[in-house]
């Protein structure tokens, strides 16, 4: 039985989309801002849950 050559690899980057090259038009929020907003939202939900 002949051994098939399975050492062929696909070209690097084939079919991959490079998202960091695309500029979005949405708001720019720093990672610290996201963490702070999440903490504030969590505290707000906690207060609303126990305010009955």
Automatic annotation (TrEMBL):
Q: What membrane topology does the annotation report for this chain?
A: Single-pass membrane protein
- One GO cellular component from the entry? plasma membrane
Q: Does the keyword Calcium apply?
A: no
Q: Which residues lie on this side of the membrane: Cytoplasmic?
A: 1-30
- This protein's major location comes to membrane
A biological process term (GO) from this entry? protein transport
Q: Which UniProt keywords apply?
A: Cell membrane, Membrane, Protein transport, Translocation, Transmembrane, Transmembrane helix, Transport
From the Swiss-Prot or TrEMBL record, state where the protein is found: Cell membrane
**Keyword Zinc-finger recorded:** no
* InterPro entries registered for this protein in UniProt: Preprot_translocase_SecG, SecG/Sec61-beta/Sbh
* Residue intervals passing through the bilayer: 33-51
Q: Where is the signal peptide?
A: none
**What this chain does, per the record?**
Involved in protein export. The function of the beta subunit is unknown, but it may be involved in stabilization of the trimeric complex.
- HAMAP family named among the record's database cross-references: SecG (MF_00751)
On subunit structure and binding partners, the annotation says:
Component of the protein translocase complex. Heterotrimer consisting of alpha (SecY), beta (SecG) and gamma (SecE) subunits. Can form oligomers of the heterotrimer.
Tell me its family: Belongs to the SEC61-beta family.
Q: What is this protein called?
A: Preprotein translocase subunit SecG
